[in-house]
Structures are given as C-alpha cells and as structure tokens.
Design brief:
3 helices
C-alpha cells in the first residue's frame, strides 16, 4: 500500500492503470503547453519514474548528458519541453 501524502505545491497526475500506449506522455506534454501558455506556474516540471532507465534517482534529466538507457525514453522526451525529474 502507498501512504498518502500532501504536497505543498499543485500537482497534476496523468497516470492510470494502463502501462503503455494510452497517451499519457502526449497528454502530459499538452498539459505543460497549456500551463505555460496560461502562465499558471512559475516553474512547472515533470516528475516521472523513468521506466526503462537504469540510473538511480531522483535526478534532473539532462538531454545533453543522458540517454534512454540511463533515464528512459519518455523522460528524455519530456525534458525537451520542461525540466524532468
């Protein structure tokens, strides 16, 4: 079981029970574009578990120094739009 916790900042979650192919990453990118376009957050970022990568985290994804083998392919894609942890 997961112990619930309260965040001190607003959080939008795009996760669901489907492992892949349901459009979570495109939805997250679209939400980020809306958030940035409307100026709803000063420092929006993505938080992802980095499926497929072997690097232990949390860490800030650096598209110049990380690859899909280290952090996963989706965090690299997300990091092109906003900081991804």
């Amino acid at each position: 079981l997961v112990t619930p916790s309260q965040s001190s900042i607003p959080v939008l979650c795009t996760g669901n029970l489907v492992a892949g192919g349901s459009g979570k990453t495109p939805a997250a990118l679209a939400l980020m574009a809306l958030i940035r376009g409307a100026g709803l957050s000063q420092n929006p970022c993505f938080l992802t578990r980095g499926y497929g990568g072997h690097e232990r985290g949390p860490l800030l994804v650096d598209i110049k120094n990380h690859d899909a083998a280290t952090v996963g392919d989706e965090p690299l894609l997300l990091a092109r739009a906003a900081p991804a942890i």
